Amino acid sequence: MSQAQVRETINEASGTVFRPGLEGVPVTHSSICDIDGLQGNLSYRGYSIQELAAKSTFLETTYLLIWGELPNPQQLRDFEAEVQMHRRVSFRVRDMMKCFPATGHPMDALQSSAASLGLFYSRRAIDNPQYIYDAVVRLIAKIPTMVAAFQLIRKGQDPIQPRDDLAYSANFLYMLTEREQDPLAARIFDRCLILHAEHSLNASTFSARVTASTLTDPYAVVASAVGTLAGPLHGGANEDVLAMLEEIGSPNNVSAYLDDAITNKKKVMGFGHREYRVKDPRASILQDLAEELFARFGKDEMYDVARELEAESASRLGPKGIFPNVDFYSGLVYRKLGIPRDLFTPVFAISRVAGWLAHWREQLGANRIFRPSQIYTGSKSRQWIAPSERTTTEGS
Ligand code: COA
Q1: How far, in Å, CA of 180 to CA of 170, rounded?
Q2: What per-residue confidence (pLDDT) applies to 394?
Q3: Residues 260 and 178 in one domain
Q4: Is residue 341 part of a domain?
Q5: Cβ contacts of residue 262 below 8 Å, gap of 6+?
Q6: Strand ordering across the sheet containing 41-44
Q7: CA distance 133 to 303
Q8: Is residue 33 part of a domain?
């Protein structure tokens, strides 16, 4: 596609405007998440992200996102108990995962295993509230188990079973690292899940809504969103942040790195966001979480580089509205929690499944299948010619 075709254009035939990437084009009404990118405010169902990250749990926030209200104590107990009961995955899924290549990316493993759940729970009763509840419970419960299982399988080990005495986040870290983590580490991980659970119509959520609009099953909805999240323009920037910090190496090298990036128009990873013109509120909370972790378990040596980069870039990128985003400090937190770098995006998926499912439900509540239009730029009225008479290769 030429550069001209990714700029905003007017379709002269219909008078409609083509906005590449649908930038600024509303595609739905939604009451799930609100972003004020000028003030740096983010809320889920009207509750500020700061308050949820401080006081809620990931499972409570998931319930809030999906059903629109905070659960009462009984509803929360029931939801937690149901999720705990469905954490195990069938031996058939585990056996299937053992056939995946150990060198495959964990996001591809997750997409395949999430899609496979549709084979086991294939009844598409999407107008049945019990079916919706059960599907939510299964997906929230089993996705962490599948992420942790692939990590052990690719090391040549058998996955370990979930532990019923451990809460959601503590259990995931246990299944992943094979040891029970300090409660502070588990709580900080749970807060990270809250921060990543929802962020309006990003690419993977839009993908989830498009898939949902066909009335297919929720496992296909989540598998499609996982595939979309896997791309480097969406999930994955936090891996690049760590690589960048390591390349910079020391706070003394930050200024020269920034000079070079700005002169050569290189993106500084973990900076900038389509929605925010100020520091992403999630980045501020993640920075606090990183400091809390470092105070207990020792500092990541790249933290000083990160802080210097944020300070130095304030005067150089700040005037353009470019500040740290959610990915800037999350990699440092995940590394301290013992999460391997190529699992950062699958961990993002564990959390974002809550938002995808909230959008799935909302889409079903007022559905019209997505079917946008296009501006045709190809050839017209051509005649088929026999292969022996062709002088040029079509499509070359
Ligand atoms: N470092 C340096 N300059 C940046 C930048 C960054 N991280 N992000 C944006 N800019 C600059 C661009 O170079 C461009 O400058 P110009 O107008 O002088 O050409 C301008 O800001 C607009 O950038 P653009 O890429 O069009 O903004 P966008 O809204 O489409 O992109 C991102 C948003 C997130 C894709 C982009 O900021 C980015 O690539 N960031 C780095 C990757 C990252 O952290 N992604 C995680 C997002 S949560």
Answers
A1: 7
A2: 52
A3: no
A4: no
A5: 316, 317
A6: 33-36, 41-44, 47-48
A7: 41
A8: no
37: left (phi over 0), alpha (psi -120 to 50) or beta: alpha
In this structure, what token pair is assigned to residue 383?
């005649």
Q: Give me the pLDDT at residue 396, please.
A: 46
| Same domain membership, residue 272 and residue 193 | no
Mutational test site, ligand 1, from 6, 273, 277, 352, max ligand atoms within 8 Å of CB: 273
User: How far lies 358's CA from each of 64, 170, 198, 239, in Å?
Assistant: 9, 24, 9, 27
pLDDT in tens, 169-228: 999 999 999 999 999 999 999 999 999 999 999 999 999 999 999 999 999 999 999 999
Instruction: Please report whether residue 245 resides in a domain.
Output: yes
Tokens encoding 111 = 């997409």
Estimate to the nearest angstrom the gap between the alpha carbon of 374 and the chain centroid: 28
* Atom of ligand 1 at shortest range from CA of 280: 48
The minimum-distance atom of ligand 1 relative to the CA of 21 is 30
Q: Which of 190, 280, 300, 327 is catalytic?
A: 327
Question: How many Cα atoms are found within 13 Å in the side-chain-facing hemisphere of 392?
Answer: 3
Quote the domain boundaries for residue 191: 55-234+351-365
Q: Which residues of the chain have pLDDT under 50?
A: 396
Can 158 be counted among the known catalytic residues?
no
For the question of residue 273 being annotated catalytic, the response is yes
- In whole angstroms, give the CA distance from residue 70 to residue 320: 38
